[in-house]
Specification:
- The complex is a heterodimer of chains A (about 80) and B (about 675).
- Chain A has about 80 residues and is mainly alpha-helical.
- Chain A has helices spanning about 1-15, 40-50, 65, 70-80.
- In chain A, helix 1 packs across helix 4 (about 70-80).
- The model of chain A has no long low-confidence stretch (mean pLDDT about 90).
- By secondary structure, chain B is an alpha/beta fold.
- Chain B has a domain at about 1-220: Aminohydrolase, N-terminal nucleophile (Ntn) domain (Glutamine Phosphoribosylpyrophosphate, subunit 1, domain 1, 4-Layer Sandwich), CATH 3.60.20.10.
- A seven-stranded mixed β-sheet of chain B has the order 10-8-9-1-3-2-18.
- The chains are: A mainly alpha (about 80), B alpha/beta (about 675).
- At the A-B interface, helix 2 of A face helix 16, helix 17 and helix 29 of B.
Chain lengths: ~80, ~675
């Protein structure tokens, strides 16, 4: 789980924050903090599918699953265990 | 339609001719047909002419009977025959047939009260030799531009900022607040421009410059009715409003055909331009020429609708097809003309369109611009309405579904995968309905994330979203928050977007780049005032936009065009600048060295973003990243073109076919 979160964090910092991780912790809401908008989330999904070999279904595309590093960590762990 | 420039210097004797000539040279694209200069005493006026009315006798500057009042004028006074008649009745003698000449005589009669008599699109400067003062005026909606730099006892002004920069004493510095504001709301706000200490005279304002200094006042403001007045107006039946819309749009179109050269029309394939085109074709000119832009990228292309309109109306139509690499190639010249940072490439196709018009030997076109602002055509007005509806029941599952329906072109429609993220996004600030800027909060906040690319110094000086809201709210009239929410949202959109982006970066500057004058029937102040006065439900009915206008158009526009869902005018971005191929100037201007030199950016952050653009060959999914790319690149271009004075031709990758200056052999008449 920690490893997943670290990879996700590196992706978000590199790809959306362009290196500036100020104010980003594991529970920061991507939407609240304006890190992602609804167009950006598709990039996250593509990354998860490619990096972890999981498949994200349409009905799983919710803020509950994907709106912070922690929630993605938990979501991906669940998927990998399933 | 023309370019104007001038100087007043009360502080010192100054040989004005050399500077006036240099200023004119910078404005030649606006007026390639002739040039004129007046210089005497403290004042100098210059004029680059595009001949449209009184082709042989309309040379400017123009004077009154005893040559004590002189004007340099850009634009059109559409009601000049009526004004002239009144002035002749009062004994004024005219030596031309121009609309320009009414200005000097009207000034003699009315002084700064003259503006209420004018229906037009104008910016001008009138020098009153006896009272030793210059009067400046700019039309109500801000269709024509006027920029100035004032210092103690001296003012330099012009239609474009590049003319002001012909004066080496004028500072050349990018304005940090404007960079910050553009990265919030897309345009500079109030009187600001991209450059420090260079100001724009606001729409509907006049200014007087005399030995005591510069005084600026409004002569017209857009007003919406308050609650009491709305109640009274609500009694008037819809049919009566509809009839007045029909009458005024007809008349506004009619008087905009006044010209001694043929008038063409832009045809976007949407309702607004099809409506005015249909009116012209049916009532005034059966052999009308129309022009449109088509995109090779299908996501942006509207040519199918344009062809439908052409087939139904029977106009002689020409179109130019715009590719991604066209936009990348001409972008330096687009920014040279726009003179401001932009977040969209949408001006670029308009630049190509005006070139097409000019190559077909047209100088004047009608356009449908403005109808979306005054008759509430934009999605942001619906978004405001839906969010207010949702805010009354924030836990509703159904109400937010309306939001995604508004933006199918961004979010892929109501069944799109990212649906619940869309909702999460639009739920931000849902409860702040009391804010005067509620309609625009989300957009500003989302755009405002671009400020992460600006340097720490600029961000510290200008603050975040709340600081921007405070700055902008200070510009609103006190009664703004008593208006209907739709009127509030429309006022903000007009205040921010119309004069400072749409009519300038996408309008005047792109058309005048090829000496073409746009005319805007929907921005006739009588139409604007009528739309503002009518009950809001006749503008936005439920979620049906431009309700009354669609009814009005139904008689003359094909039904499939009236009924089609509105498609916002947009142009491609990322792929224009990367991998397709990447123009050399893009590599040069977005290099770490060049970014550092400008001194406006968080350089490591921008460098990493540009690496992503390069890696993905410009395929950027997020809207915000597309805006960031255009914003950063346009700031770099401004820095190179205006601060470092690198010639635009040097930056253009391929030799742009219109790079060669036009009209270099124009004769300049020096008066008196």
């Amino acid at each position: 789980m920690e490893e997943i979160k670290l990879k996700v964090k590196n992706f978000v910092v590199g790809n959306f924050l362009f290196g500036n991780a100020d104010g980003l912790d594991d529970d920061t809401s991507f939407l609240e903090a304006g890190i992602l908008d609804s167009t950006g989330v598709m990039e996250v999904v593509a990354f998860l599918e490619q990096q972890f070999g999981v498949r994200v279904d349409d009905d799983e595309l919710t803020p509950e699953n994907l709106d912070s590093i922690s929630s993605i960590g938990a979501f991906v762990s669940r998927k990998l265990q399933a | 339609m023309c370019g104007i420039a001038g100087i007043v210097n009360f502080a010192a004797a100054e040989d004005k001719l050399p500077l006036l000539r240099r200023m004119l040279a910078q404005l030649q694209h606006r007026g390639p047909d002739a040039g004129g200069i007046f210089a005497r005493g403290a004042a100098g006026l210059a004029h680059a002419r595009l001949s449209i009315i009184d082709l042989s006798g309309g040379g400017q500057p123009i004077h009154n009977e005893d040559r004590s009042v002189w004007v340099t004028f850009n634009g059109e006074i559409f009601n000049y025959p009526d004004v002239r008649e009144g002035l002749e009745a009062r004994g004024h003698r005219f030596y031309t047939r121009t609309d320009t000449e009414v200005l000097v005589h009207l000034y003699e009669e009315e002084g700064e009260k003259m503006f209420r008599h004018l229906n037009g699109q104008f910016s001008f400067a009138i020098w009153d030799e006896q009272r030793r003062r210059m009067l400046f005026g700019r039309d109500r909606m801000g269709i024509r531009p006027l920029f100035y730099h004032a210092s103690a006892g001296r003012i330099v002004f012009g239609s474009e900022i590049k003319a002001l920069f012909a004066d080496p004493s004028i500072p050349r510095r990018l304005d940090g607040q404007t960079l910050s504001d553009v990265f919030s709301c897309w345009s500079p706000i109030g009187e600001r421009t991209a450059f420090e200490d260079i100001r724009s005279l606001p729409p509907g304002h006049f200014a007087v410059f005399d030995e005591r200094g510069l005084v600026i006042r409004a002569f017209w403001r857009l007003r919406f009715p308050d609650a009491a007045e709305s109640e009274r107006l609500a009694e008037r039946p819809f049919e009566s409003w509809l009839e007045e819309v029909n009458d005024l749009v007809y008349d506004a179109t009619r008087i905009r055909l006044r010209a001694d050269v043929p008038v063409g029309a832009y045809l976007s394939g949407g309702l607004d331009s099809t409506f005015t085109t249909a009116l012209v074709k049916r009532h005034f000119n059966n052999r009308l020429s129309t022009f449109s832009v088509a995109f090779s990228d299908q996501r942006f292309d509207e040519s199918a609708f344009q062809r439908e309109a052409v087939a139904a109306l029977g106009t002689a139509h020409r179109e130019c097809r715009c590719t991604d690499s066209d936009i990348g190639r001409i972008f330096p010249r687009v920014v040279w003309h726009a003179e401001t940072p932009i977040l969209r490439t949408a001006p670029a196709p308009m630049f190509l369109l005006s070139r097409l018009v000019r190559s077909a030997d047209y100088k004047v076109v009608l356009t449908g611009e403005g109808a979306d602002e005054i008759f509430a055509g934009y999605n942001i007005f619906k978004e405001d309405r839906v969010r207010r509806f949702w805010a009354r029941r924030p836990d509703s599952k159904l109400r937010p579904l309306l939001v995604a329906r508004l933006y199918p072109y961004i979010f892929g429609g109501p069944n799109s995968k990212s649906q619940s993220f869309v909702q999460g996004f639009f739920k931000r600030h849902l409860s702040r309905t009391a804010s005067p800027v509620y309609s625009h909060l989300l957009r500003w906040e989302n755009t405002g994330h671009l400020k992460g690319f600006l340097g720490a110094e600029i961000n510290a000086a200008n603050g975040g979203l709340e600081a921007f809201i405070e700055r902008f709210t200070a510009l609103l009239p006190p009664e703004h928050n008593e208006w209907h929410p739709l009127s509030r949202a429309q006022f903000i959109e007009i205040q921010l977007f119309l004069a400072n982006y749409l009519l300038s970066s996408q309008g005047d500057r792109m058309a005048m780049a090829h000496s073409v004058e746009g005319r805007y029937p929907f921005l006739d102040y009588r139409v604007v005032e009528l739309a503002a006065r009518m009950p809001p439900r006749y503008r936005l009915n439920g979620l049906k936009e431009k309700f009354v206008l669609k009814k009005a158009a139904a008689g003359v526009v094909p039904a499939q065009i009236v009924d089609r869902p509105k498609q916002p005018y947009r142009a491609p971005i990322g792929r224009c600048f990367f991998g397709n191929p990447t123009p050399p100037y893009v590599e040069e201007l977005l290099s770490e060295r060049a970014l550092r030199q400008t001194g406006c950016f968080d350089v490591p952050q921008v460098v990493r973003f540009i690496e992503k653009c390069r890696r993905q060959e410009g395929s950027l999914q997020a809207e915000r990243e597309n805006m960031a790319l255009v914003g950063i690149l346009s700031i770099q271009l401004l820095d190179h073109l205006f601060i470092r004075q690198q010639p635009v031709a040097q930056l253009e990758s391929a030799a742009a076919d219109d790079a060669a200056g036009r009209g270099s052999g124009v004769e300049i008449a020096v008066m008196p």
